Amino acid sequence: MVTTHNLGFPRIGAKRELKFGLERYWKGESSRDELEALGVELRARHWTNQQALDLVPVGDFAFYDQVLDMSFTLGNLPERVQGFHGDTLDNYFRVARGRSAQSAEEHAGCCGGVAAGEMTKWFDTNYHYIVPEFTANTQFNLDTSRLSEQLREARTLGVNAKPVIVGPLTYLWLGKAKDESDKLALLPRLMPVYRALLSHFKALGVEWVQIDEPILVTELEPAWREAFKTAYEGFEQRGVKLLLVTYFGELKDNLDLACTLPVDGLHIDAINARDELALAAHKLPAQSVLSVGAINGRNIWKTDLGATLDWLEPLARQLGERLWIAPSCSLLHVPVDLASEEKLDAGIRSWLAFALQKLDELNVLATALNAGRDAVAVELAANAAAIAARRQSPRVNNPAVKAAMARIDAKLGNRQSAYAERATKQAALLRLPAFPTTTIGSFPQTAGIRQARSHYKSGALDYAAYQSAMRAEIEHSVREQEALGLDVLVHGEAERNDMVEYFGEQLDGYAFSQFGWVQSYGSRCVKPPILFGDISRPRAMTVEWITYAQSLTNKPMKGMLTGPVTILNWSFVRDDQPRSMSCYQLALAIREEVLDLEKAGVRVIQIDEAALREGLPLRRAQWAEYLRWAVESFRITANGVADETQIHTHMCYSEFNDIIASIAGMDADVITIETSRSDMELLDAFDHFKYPNEIGPGVYDIHSPNIPTEAHIVQLMQKAAERIPAGRLWVNPDCGLKTRQWAEVIPALTNMVAAAKALRSQAH
Ligand code: GLN
Ligand code: ZN
């Protein structure tokens, strides 16, 4: 008999109950008891949802983040929150978000104002975890309370609990040594705490423990590989069985290591590493379990159950009882339940599976393996029909898009002339001063704007009324920008709810869920649009707004688009073609928009690639390939314009050292980046590379309510000018201003424009 299990379940709740519960609690609108009760209720519901499985994960729930939970279990709290008033959960939220609930902050006067823990993306997903902090002096201290309590809850419900923990090497790897000390040197101090935790599980009668070590799918230094051996050998005689869990990629040269560590089973992500299953089955010791992640835990498509059984059945015959099956990774990365989607087109809906549907699929696979395919003939037939319908659907396959894809050649991504020549022509046309000023696109999204958009969506507002509301907003932001004296203006993006959704909604090949929320961090969720088919653009998407904005001013108006790589990286994408293919299709569609803007007389066009860096594969060896098609997609999008048209791009980060050649390869005339917090040191990458085109290093930290002073901006720009020739510098904020208030934006931009003027007069 095959064993079924799950690695983790989305904790946010099908209706985002956890989000709303947390936010009520933080605001002081609900009590601690209510929050705790919500946790109990969600855990119970989710375990009940998973009841049909042989083993159910416990410890995957977190009020904020599972890595932060692990830090608390290990007693690794940053020094700055130690010695605080309040209890563990107060401290937990202090690390998570800089403050606990309102009611717990009575002591704000004596000990308030903690810096929140740094957040980083969890491997190559869009989930963000709180980075564990280390110093050479870090001590660990076991706190089993959370896991004990949750195991007790699970037992009362009668589920077969499998505690889930982050393994010691992955835990160290995810963290940051604040004093630049060697994190690995902490392993000897960490090991006794893990050993005590395993003994604790043993005392509680736990049989299996899931120990996540996803770093085994990355390129590990020899010292780290060695440390794996030391650590896991240290777990011998533990009295519980360990399932070593990997996901998100292939183990490659870590496969041998993973198969020989003294554990009781190994989980491999068969969506990414199916080719390694046979080798693992061969290499694992005769008693070891091989857990196969047969269902994609990160995407929302139905599994092709027949095709999966074709390769699982021989493995089941070979391994017998030793075969376990599960989703490829925690289901944290998918929405909870497709059943709540009432508005989704029925055809597309029949192709999808969210977390609950994925668990059903897992059970069908298990029954087929245990009792033969006949035992689930009806389910398999329905699945096969849905898979076939999707494959053949004319909504997925658009011959015109396929033909356009076939016509892509190198020329499509090339500008007519080199940058220097373009720059001369653009300067003649745009007549911008030195240190030109601009903003990144959005202006404050006021309550009025949101209301107009949502009324239009619900039908309460007709198009004419909606259009005039948006036009009024555009006019307001244009007048403000003229009054501020900015040089290149924007229309303000009032009509956009989200920089990806806005375009997805207007492209053919995209669908939208109502409740397809996925946790991004803490209480924050995103609802990624679903890219299901060949992408095409039935009509212009932004031209009407930009041309209206341009009609209001003699200053150049910047057209504002989201680039193909960012749209791709922030969507659920097709699994029936390579990501690069979908990206090229997006590139062709956005290219048409670029050309339409140009035709309509727009002289400056910005194509945001906020998420280009996020798409980098986990293994360095695969970076070049990703960057090749990502850069090519941008070039196809942007570079069909005349020399006189100025192309901008924007990126929401500033680490460019390792990808600077690719950034230069995009050949945008101007790139704006986020630099204000780094004191311009991050421009070094551009300096060393001798980045040839224009750069706007952000001088206004839009994530903070603080207003930058003129002097501070001047100082930042002077530092920038030490690295980049002043003639190629722009002056702009770090990112869009949609989350700020006009009352903050006006003084900040006033100072920014004044700083640019000061710089110009200094230059003379
Ligand atoms: N143009 C977008 C804006 O200004 C860019 C946002 C982003 O980079 N995340 O909001
Ligand atoms: Zn940005």
TrEMBL record:
Its cofactor is Zn(2+). It catalyses: 5-methyltetrahydropteroyltri-L-glutamate + L-homocysteine = tetrahydropteroyltri-L-glutamate + L-methionine. GO terms for biological process: L-methionine biosynthetic process; methylation. Binds 1 zinc ion per subunit. GO terms for molecular function: 5-methyltetrahydropteroyltriglutamate-homocysteine S-methyltransferase activity; zinc ion binding. Its EC number is 2.1.1.14. Pathway: Amino-acid biosynthesis; L-methionine biosynthesis via de novo pathway; L-methionine from L-homocysteine (MetE route): step 1/1. Zn(2+) binds at H650, C652, E674, C735. Residues 4-318 form the Cobalamin-independent methionine synthase MetE N-terminal domain. The keyword Transferase applies. The active site is at H703. Zn(2+) 1 binds at H650, C652, E674, C735. Keywords: Amino-acid biosynthesis, Metal-binding, Methionine biosynthesis, Methyltransferase, Repeat, Transferase, Zinc. Belongs to the vitamin-B12 independent methionine synthase family. This is 5-methyltetrahydropteroyltriglutamate--homocysteine methyltransferase. It comes from Paraburkholderia acidisoli.
